[in-house]
Amino acid sequence: MAKVGPLKIRSFVWRLYQGRVPVTSNLITRGVNIPTVACQLCTLESEDVDHLFVHCPISSQLWKMTSTWLGFPLDAENSIQSVCSKVYNYNGTSLRRKITSLITYSTIWTLWKTRNDWIFTKRAKTIGRLMEEVKLQSFNWINYRSSNLMVSWEIWCKSPAEGVKTDFVFGVGRLICRALVDSRVLWRSAFFQVLVVLASLIVFDFNMLVALEL
Ligand SMILES: [Zn+2]
Which residues in 148-157 are b (16+ Cβ under 10 Å) and which e? Predict the structure, then answer.
């Protein structure tokens, strides 16, 4: 899958691909005492990686909606490994590969957050709400975390695969701004030091002028 989106999410999806995220079946294997083995989203079957992220009725419905919106079928796979492999092997343009990866990350992360929200806060969400989260989250990743990708919210909601543009000048500008923000402490410090030097020179020159006049 393409290197887009937050590192934390990419790392999570990599662990998910290897079956190493803390779903109920994995926790039980590790000897953790769990009150119920049922899936937290549907309560119909036991929770393992493939059920939670692929076969659960809620996940399945979300993948259907995501696939329709993206224009790339990810809703007919038998396992989460198969979903990730399909995205990884997608033979589209570089930009379309990035968008497809980003939306896959967003769908997976939304399912995981929804599952955890239900466990810890008992807040249920409608499937429409989950789809909105997939769109908004991926939109934010595109606009605020990619170096040179940008899209408007209206176009993103309508056609994510077509609407994203790359802009070299915009990308360079954003990188410079980010570098300045990232090094703001150093920048402030350097700026302060330059000010001190300039002030010293002015004071020295003033003193010299006064001395010469005398
Ligand atoms: Zn389920």
Answer: ebbbeeeebe
